[in-house]
Specification:
The protein has 13 helices and no strands. With 273 residues, it is mainly α. The structure holds iron/sulfur cluster. The site of iron/sulfur cluster (SF4) has 14 residues, from α11.
Length: 273
């Protein structure tokens, strides 16, 4: 019996198994996928990648197709982290590095009850924060970053989380993923949130050849309309978390289904037997 994943419409498996013919029939042509197989995207340190305009057009078409398939399936474009204020979201995303949203959501009720604002967390002892968040990974570094970030918000930004990318990146423990999530969820700024799920799926789908968050963000930013950034990011995150999982992507499960299988090149996966 075909397995249907929660929130995912079942799709019919393609009748043909040849991957190349499959991609031609999907309407994308082979230009972008041939490009991925013959060269690397060059974007070390956030520098612009080397792709021609024609290849960018193919990538834009791919991104649009993925967006059209996934966003209707995952329309609730919100963080899975539990929060009530922008400061709480910022703290939660700092805590989420190298651990799951569920692990973070288990400790933050206690953290936010004791330190409900930046001003109060700025006064905290790092050891006291450690005692509350010790079940998440890297709790010592994260505790230091939480207190230091709260102190900077209190002293420099009047107790309010700042609303620009540059200001957010100046806070300890805040990288582009965190900044994009806070900007999109709290300030309505379109954000491309490249977490571990988005990175993995982007490579399998052929958006990027490299597992490089800065590169993936740049490729999406250059080839998708800004008003689609946030919903696209959340949909790709849910797809990676629940369907195209690290160990058992749906297309490799007996009876599994993936709404992108018709055109996904499945890069990096073992070929089917
Ligand atoms: S077809 Fe497979 S590799 Fe491609 S997105 Fe779906 S589950 Fe992931």
């Amino acid at each position: 019996m075909r397995r249907v994943f929660e929130g995912v419409a079942p799709v019919e498996k393609p009748l043909f198994q040849n991957r190349t013919a499959h991609l031609y029939r999907s309407g994308f042509g082979m230009g972008y996928y041939q490009h991925l197989q013959s060269s690397s995207n060059q974007a070390i340190g956030g520098k612009r990648h080397m792709q021609t305009e024609a290849k960018d057009a193919d990538l834009a078409a791919l991104l649009l197709k993925i967006n059209e398939c996934l966003v209707p399936l995952w329309p609730d474009a919100k963080p899975l982290l539990h929060y009530g204020t922008c400061f709480e979201l910022l703290c939660s995303v700092i805590l989420s590095a190298q651990c799951t949203d569920e692990q973070v959501n288990a400790v933050t009720p206690f953290l936010f009850k004791k330190y409900p604002s930046a001003e109060e967390m700025a006064q905290a002892k790092v050891e006291d924060v450690e005692n509350i968040i010790h079940s998440v990974g890297f709790f010592h570094t994260k505790s230091k970053n939480l207190v230091a970030t709260a102190q900077k918000i209190s002293l420099t930004y009047g107790g309010s989380v700042p609303s620009t990318m540059g200001e957010l990146l100046s806070l300890p423990g805040v990288g582009r993923k965190t900044a994009n999530l806070v900007l999109s969820a709290c300030f309505g700024t379109p954000g491309i949130i490249v977490d571990t799920h988005v990175m993995r799926v982007a490579c399998r789908l052929g958006i990027s050849r490299k597992k490089d968050p800065a590169l993936i963000e740049a490729l999406i930013r250059q080839n998708l309309e800004p008003d689609k950034y946030t919903a696209f990011s959340h949909a790709l995150n849910r797809h990676g978390k629940y369907v195209c999982t690290a160990r058992k992507p749906a297309c490799r499960l007996d009876g599994g289904s993936c709404p992108l299988e018709e055109f996904c090149p499945q890069l990096g996966l073992d070929s089917r037997s």
